[in-house]
Amino acid sequence: MDPIPYRRETPGTQPPALWPDYRSTVLRSPRKPLIALPHSLSEVTGPIFGHDRLQPNDADLTSQHKERPIGDRMIVAGRVIDENERPVAGTLVEIWQANSAGRYFHPRDSRDAPLDSNFTGGGRTITDEEGRYRFITVKPGYYPWGNHPNAWRPAHIHFSVFGPSFVTRLICQMYFEDDPMLRYDPIYMSVPSDAGRKQLLAKFDYELTVPGFGLGYRFDIVLRGRNATPPEADHAH
Amino acid sequence: MRSMPFGGSYVPETPSQTAGPYVHIGLIPKQAGFDIFENNFGGDIAGPRVPGERITIKGRVFDGAGLATRDVLVETWQANAAGRYNHSADRQQGALDKSFRGWARTGTDFATGVYTIRTIKPGAVIGRKGRKRMAPHINFWIASRGINIGLATRMYFADEEAANAADPVLNIIEQPERRKTLIAPRSERDGNVTYTFDIYLQGERETVFFDA
Q1: Predicted model pTM
Q2: Residues A39, A73, A103, A153: which is the catalytic one?
Q3: How high is the ipTM of this complex?
Q4: The domain spanning residue B116 has which CATH number?
């Protein structure tokens, strides 16, 4: 029996590789068509991570250093599900972000904005049986970048998720609804549909908000799901 | 929600976004210059007791201007020396070594652009239809600034000439010239085996990337 393949990308849902408004894609986008690969064991398997390598503080970006970082403390939580709306349990979720002043703790970010020695901006966790994850962090600031005159990134958090196989691997960015910078951002706007862009927006969530501690934001992530029957035929590729 | 060709509906995958230039903070923090996690994932993945031939993979990732990039995340996924993946979907009999996860992560170096992975050479993996084995290969996935959707490719081994010639995936690639972009030459020095796998994002030598 061949492994059950994963569904292919739904046309019109993912950003194109070449998106000249985002200048860095011009020299980094492949120009030849991708070659469709029928799914073998190499594609439907992928790395499995246990809890053994993680520490509790890995998911709390506000307690990784001596003191608390400066900024609006917040909870970011949600579920990782697949396209068939099944929970993706036990999968590694990693995040990284700028500090509340919009500066990354990174040797290549030399912007004139303060670093916070209590905030390095990286975190990771593993989803529970229902696909749920939860991070504590501070709200990232805006920052300017050199893509075009007066370019500013909207506030965002980078997410990296694995899922059960090599083909479910995903890196995306979480934004905040009602952010006025979104429509000017070529990275966000590279997503071709309104529905797709909405999938990248975290929503304020009163239920996730912890009294006296911080506001809650909900961000769910959808990974590729398995195809329904009938199984794909050889000639489909 | 989209309607499915076979009835029902599904929610499409969340859109991919570039990993940006600061990917190291979240995924390879040591390269960003700090060390907050007790255990880091890395590019040196075969412990002393893992069976198999020790190999080093080195390479660079070139952009369309021919420059070696210095901010690309490189991840690899492979079977063990017996050709078995450490994953429940691989139901082959025999030699599963739980101590070998089979997954590596590193980045192209800020100064040299070179990435380095230390691992073991995988065995031939069972192919589709359950009969024909695929030539030994390592699955690659790269992401960075300027890459909107992570790119998937495979590295094959130049010393596996007969297996490569029969490989069902290499043979999907129509032009034989392009197959060569996936085959890494082998070199030996002082008993150390190195495969060189350079990736070209664009240009005449553009690497074959897969819609996987």
Answers
A1: 0.95
A2: A153
A3: 0.95
A4: 2.60.130.10
